[in-house]
UniProtKB/TrEMBL annotation:
SUPFAM superfamilies: Glyceraldehyde-3-phosphate dehydrogenase-like, C-terminal domain, NAD(P)-binding Rossmann-fold domains. Pfam families: GFO_IDH_MocA. Residues 2-105 form the Gfo/Idh/MocA-like oxidoreductase N-terminal domain. This is Putative dehydrogenase. GO terms for molecular function: nucleotide binding. PANTHER family: BILIVERDIN REDUCTASE A.
Length: 333
């Protein structure tokens, strides 16, 4: 196996470590900032070959882990190398309009968007339960954390998260928009209110969304709370059906099924608590899809397509527009 990671920030470095643990034979890193070598980075595998262009050898996987504003250009450059697969970190781009050149590329089908929550066994169990328990009637999603603790030792006000053109709670927490879309379907309209003023950054610090969709059998209302102004982390979804309530807690890696008159059923997935393990499932699924044999993967793991990643960006676009217009907005791709 041969893989390259474009971008060597904290996420890029983690991808490199994960790929090494998976036994990738040849590992390349292409930093955005020149002069970053392996001797300077203890968090990058020592056998990584640093490059300043794509190698001549064919690549099985290219991972794009650069700043959001660079994603589309860097992904286009990767696709032109004709690798077997490309994994693009979230979000695809700051807006749907900026996604268009990548969507329109003739080889766009080889691009997947990083969505590690889809590779949690808790998510797989929830998806299976949802099929068994019937049509959902409502859902509530919460994702709360504390931005100053995200990157210890670095001023969060100087990070991309603080910038309104590529950061903010909507884009940073887009994973928590992606997986509800995968479970519950595309909204018809989105109403949103964005919050600022706690952290002193120009981007939104919180977002409250209410979206409606026609649903399979009846209308479905979904509420979403995203913020990084909460020192106590919370990340979960609760879905009501006509027969039960289903909950997935990402912090405790647990799924709970509640039915009237019955004792709640609890299952725990400790392997989901290892971020590297989850990322290995994601990269392994992409490699397996193009013919590389990877052991230990569940067939239920399903990577997010480029189109799915753009849909999540479209919901973010609709939310920002709704906050400005103070009315419900449609999701436009």
């Amino acid at each position: 196996m041969r893989a390259l990671v474009r971008g060597t920030g904290s996420i890029g470095a983690r991808h490199l470590r994960v790929l090494e643990s998976m036994g990738v034979d040849e590992l390349y890193a292409w930093p955005v900032r020149k002069g970053t070598g392996s001797t300077e980075r203890a968090d990058i595998p020592s056998r990584t070959v640093f490059v300043d262009t794509y190698p001549n050898a064919p690549l099985d996987l290219i991972i794009i882990a650069t700043d959001t504003v660079r994603h589309v250009d860097d992904a286009l450059g990767a696709v032109e190398q004709n690798p077997r697969s490309v994994l693009l970190e979230k979000p695809v781009a700051p807006t749907v309009q900026q996604c268009r050149p990548l969507l329109d590329h003739p080889r766009a089908s080889i691009v997947s968007v990083s969505a590690p929550l889809r590779f949690h066994d808790g998510y797989v169990e929830l998806a299976q339960l949802l099929e068994q328990e019937g049509t959902p009637t409502s859902a509530q999603i919460v994702s709360q954390s504390w931005l100053p603790s995200w990157r210890p030792g670095r001023d969060y006000r100087q990070s991309y998260s603080a910038r309104s053109d590529e950061g903010g709670a909507l884009r940073d927490l887009v994973h928590d928009i992606d997986y509800p879309l995968a479970l519950l379907g595309t909204p018809d309209t989105v109403v949103a209110r964005l919050g600022r003023g706690v952290l002193g950054i120009e981007a939104e610090e919180s977002a409250d969304l209410l979206w409606h969709s026609s649903g399979k059998e009846h209308p479905l209302a979904v509420s979403v709370r995203l913020d990084y102004v909460s020192p106590v982390k919370k990340r979960e979804i609760r879905i009501a059906t006509a027969h039960s309530a289903l909950s997935w807690n990402v912090v405790t890696n647990s799924v709970i099924v509640e039915r009237p008159g019955s004792v709640p059923e609890l299952s725990v997935h400790p392997g989901d608590g290892d971020v590297d393990n989850v990322l290995a499932r994601q990269s392994g699924t992409l490699l397996q899809r193009v013919g590389v044999v990877v052991d230990g993967l569940r067939h239920e793991y399903n990577a997010a397509s480029l189109q799915a990643g753009v849909l999540a960006v479209a919901v973010c676009d609709a939310a920002r527009l709704s906050d400005r217009t103070r009315r419900g907005e449609t999701v436009v791709l």
